[in-house]
């Protein structure tokens, strides 16, 4: 039986020291290709005006931006410390990116502002996923696409142990466990989607996580 979900934080990583350690971890995930970018492209994320929710140090969106036909790239991030690191990384990538401090439940963007919305690894921290899903619907244009990837709580002890031991730097390991315990199962996510404006979204399981994808239909 899968253990009950344990809520983590909805404040993001605020400490500069912690943000720097997380930057090192995220860079390693990028180098391994364990950051959801391939899944995003396979789901139909095609470029245009892209919004990333919870970009952290920015590697997921920046890697995606290199591979698609980009008009503009915006990140909505709750942590000022992470925004500073993401801006530095964007300069190193040579990609023009605009990172805005904000909460996914009430994003500071106009209706129909984006062609695609992505997010990797922040879903388990959202205080109200339904409110964020409704915001994604609001800011996407008709025909816009979204892809949200995150861990899932029911990966089992063997996979959990394997990932835990391979997580570097070691300082990140307790955070990996707390994030895993806060993650959702496929069934839980399907129920949340049913109660949101992304009710047509598709939830898929992979080796260690979930992906939520779909296309916006507005009439």
UniProtKB/TrEMBL annotation:
EC class name: transferase
EC number from the UniProt entry: 2.1.-.-
Provide a Gene Ontology MF annotation, just one. Answer: methyltransferase activity
Stretches assigned to the Methyltransferase type domain = 51-148
Give the domain of life. Bacteria
GO BP term, example: methylation
Which keywords fit this entry according to its UniProt record?
Answer: Methyltransferase, Transferase
Transferase: is it a keyword of this entry?
A: yes
Under InterPro entries, the record lists: Methyltransf_11 (IPR013216), SAM-dependent_MTases_sf (IPR029063)
Q: Under which name does UniProt file this protein?
A: Class I SAM-dependent methyltransferase
Lineage, broadest ranks: Bacteria, Bacillati, Bacillota, Clostridia, Eubacteriales
